[in-house]
């Protein structure tokens, strides 16, 4: 069995990398929210691509840390007496806060996108109504040539 201090230190370094990636996800989520609010969907998509890459790295890192987390879980009573353990608890708290922040930002982004879709639909409806009004007006000012009071020559 590996030295407990070494495993705790390795896990701490892994959590630091997780926190770095979560910080990047948080920044990307905020940038996506801003892009959705101003309607810059091209920028939103580019940010989404970057977010996919960061998320993939996070998933891989979590998969790499999982066996170590399980081993440390079996040694929890022993680990709790280590000063590194308290630092790990703090890192886990920060990670939870970052995840909660990203999820809250994503909820705001979804809301902004829904509002933009409603506005787009209202604009499309207004345009369709305007086109129908113009088509009706054209019929009034340009009736059939056979019954026209005013023809093209008048």
Condensed summary:
This protein has 154 residues and is an all-alpha fold. The protein contains four helices and no strands.
Provide structural commentary.
- The chain is built from four helices and no strands.
- With 154 residues, it is mainly α.
Keywords:
rod-shaped, single chain, about 150 residues, 4 helices, mainly alpha
Task: Tell me the layout of helices and strands.
Blueprint: H1 4-38, H2 41-74, H3 76-79, H4 83-141
Helix pairs in contact: 1-2, 1-4
Low-confidence stretches: none
The whole-number mean of residue pLDDT values reads 86
What is the ordering of alpha helices and beta strands? HHHH
Proportion of β residues? under 5%
- Please outline the major beta sheet: none
| Strand segment count | 0
Summing up helix and strand content along with how strands pair, one would put the structural category as mainly alpha
Please give the alpha-carbon distance between the first and last residues.
103 Å
The best one-word shape is: rod-shaped
Helix content: over 70%
Gyration radius, to the nearest Å? 30 Å
Number of helices: 4
């Amino acid at each position: 069995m590996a030295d407990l201090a070494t495993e705790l230190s390795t896990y701490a370094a892994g959590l630091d990398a997780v926190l770095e990636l979560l910080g990047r996800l948080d920044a990307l989520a905020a940038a996506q929210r801003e892009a959705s609010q101003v309607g810059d969907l091209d920028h939103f998509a580019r940010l989404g691509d970057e977010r996919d890459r960061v998320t993939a790295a996070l998933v891989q890192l979590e998969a790499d840390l999982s066996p170590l987390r399980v081993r440390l879980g079996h040694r929890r009573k022993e680990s709790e007496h280590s000063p590194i353990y308290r630092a790990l608890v703090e890192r886990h708290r920060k990670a939870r806060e970052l995840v909660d922040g990203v999820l809250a930002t994503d909820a705001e982004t979804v809301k902004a996108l829904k509002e933009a879709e409603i506005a787009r639909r209202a604009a499309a409806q207004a345009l369709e109504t305007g086109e129908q009004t113009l088509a009706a007006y054209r019929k009034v000012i340009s009736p059939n040539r056979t019954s026209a009071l005013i023809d093209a020559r008048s």
